[in-house]
Amino acid sequence: MATPKLELVPRRSLIQTVLRAILIFLAIVLITLLAVVGWFYSAARAALPQVDGMLRLAGLAAPVTVFRDLQGVPHISAGSLPDLLFAQGYVTAQDRLWQMDVSRRAAAGELAEVLGKELVARDREQRILQPRVAAERGAAALDSRARTDLEAYAGGVNAFIENHRNHLPMEFRVLRYAPRPWTIQDSILVAVEMCQQLNHGTFEFDLEHEKILAKLGPELTADLYINSSWRDFPPSATTGQMENSPKPAAAAGDASPPSAWQNVGRSQTEISELMPGSNNWVVSGAHTISGKPLLSNDMHLGHRIPGVWYEAHLESGSFNVAGVTLPGLPYVIVGHNQRIAWGFTNLGPDVEDVFIENFNQRGEYETPEGWQLPEHRHEVIHIKGQPDMAFDVLVTRHGPIVNELVPGERRPLALQWSLYDPRSVTAPFFAINAAQTWDQFRRAFSRFGGPAQNVVYADVDGHIGYQATGFIPIRPLGDGSLPVSGSDNVHEWKGYVPFEKLPRVFDPPSGVLATANGRIAPESYPYSLSNQWGAPYRTQRIYTVLKAPQNSRKKFSAADMLALQTDIYSEYDRFCAERLVYAVDHARSVSARARQAAELMRRWEGKVATDSAAAIIVARARYHLARLLLEPKLGRERRPLQVSGLEASGWRQYSWPMASVWLENVLEQRPARWLPQNYPNYDELLAAAVEAAIAPARGASAETSAGEITAPRDLISWHWGRQFPIELQHPIFGRVPILQRFSGPGVQPQSGGSYTVKQVGRRFGPSERMTVDLADLDSSTLNIVTGESGNIFSDHYMDQWRAWYEGQTFALPFSHSAVEKARAHRLELQPAR
Hints:
- There is one protein chain.
- By secondary structure, this protein is of the alpha+beta class.
- The protein is built from 24 helices and 28 strands.
- A hairpin with a 2-residue loop joins β11 and β12.
- The longest helix has about 35 residues, at about 10-45.
């Protein structure tokens, strides 16, 4: 019987078969990838707005014209105010609909429904804080004028949603959901979200303050929670700088060092609770080339893509206003009309108090009228792909019980917040936009509830002014800086500071007014507006620059205003460098590396430039100095460095907007009560802080471990901009590697720091830069961070980034001739037949 012969497949044939299979697989993957990319590109392009031609829209009563200029800024002209606001809603939705939807969801605590379980904790916090309830109350309390305006705006938004169900922005398609119709309440939610960003969180300081007071006692706690500085420049103070806050003198026994530089006027501490600040100022015509005022404003907020603001120009008859709008709200928030201009900074009031409630075993809480049952608000969080989460929020007469937001707290803490008063969410922006005089302007702002702002003013007649705004509570006892009992009426608010009593200034003799989140009233002011003013250094720098030409007879131009908005000189950092250099020079035993660091600081001019090594040495030495001062008092940190706020431990429990002023006072006065026992004097302490700051990393460059920054072996190569960059990316598309190049600038080195006029952080900075020229409104300038559009393939998605990053700007045309000259597109909105 013959044996069967086994046919073997040749090795070359096997390899060819495998390669063919791999190639087929790769081809399928490539085709699939190209198909996905093609679909994405096609869908994104289909979602681009129509900017030319004609559209018919149900809801319009008469035609509306929309010009767009080279930056995509819409200039909207309508025959009536309702049509104008309808068109504003429609046009804003063309460019920013997904941002608008996310804003209302973020405020209401509804992000997990579309973004998944990672957002549950944030949604739960929002449900506890009750901003949605505040919006509901605000909507119910609207007057007829505001209601009509918001209905017109919502009508335009909904017209866009209805007409583009099949061509929605890509974020909706990627996340597989569609927006619900826009409502009046949604617009108020957008306003409430801004209130929360700017006028919320002080209750956390109150609780931290309480803990530290219990540990340190009143003297040291008073040092830490300082709320004024000799550098303060309240606009309402007759003499400029604080007359009752003298420059601190050196304490006896440890003399304050002299200047480390000769012939130089004395002019980041990471412990400062660095809240994004803003700058605004106005100079009268006496100090300008044109002879008319210049008004500048750069509001510093958290970065996002698309940006916070949307530029627009709105015109209907005599109503004519241009500036930045908040997507989701009608009208212009900051800008100018044909006669006046205005700009904002956050006043930073204390509009929150913590009340310690007393509950009995029946679940009732104590009041002066007896025991009462709290309200139970039932909340349901919808979670994408998972079951709903339901829970109750207890609400007393003061507000919601917020214990869940305070780790380790067992006392029932109720949060009272002015936001819960429906009058505080009023936004009279029609009256503000339409005002033609100082008196009309003030009358409009008298109804502005919040967030409380510092407003600077200028008009074409040459007048300038300042007005504090917002509802700020009057407390019968204390300043709201510590928790108080909720069982009696001893600490109940007695209304709000009357508008006529809020600080204001009109046509000051100096011809200069400026604010930068610092103190706005002298010590003699009868009301407590804030127990946590911002650090004074930016305000001082602005006044220093703006008042210097009064001695040199220099006249300002709009270009000078932009230069000041992008100024990176830090008086505080320079002061700290001076003290650190002196300490290294006089300490008994320091390393050669510390002496090199001292030389870098000695030669430094105080500019927080991208390539500065001295700036980062100063900031890190200051951080370690704070640690060395606070650890013996508050203990070592027990949790990771990234943990902050109420979850922080040990010495990092302390954070305060004026922590920098506390540290400045320690450096200036050298008090014995703060000198740690293991250091014989302050020179040795400061030298140790420098040594800790420059301790080399294991590798050749700076590294981070649990957030800790370490120095490179070559100190000269330690660059500020690389260590403290800006990070800006689209929240969805920035996570897709193939799209990252197009979806945002990513991580980029930057200049400026915590105490420069150009105040920046990794994820916050100037959200816009505006200068209004009251001599020629067409010469006014404005730019936002990235661009007008939220569509990744729009020409206006990132077209303003380079100018913002490099400190440049764009003209904002206003007159008919200037708008026509700048016109790049024309769209006619017609009523539906």
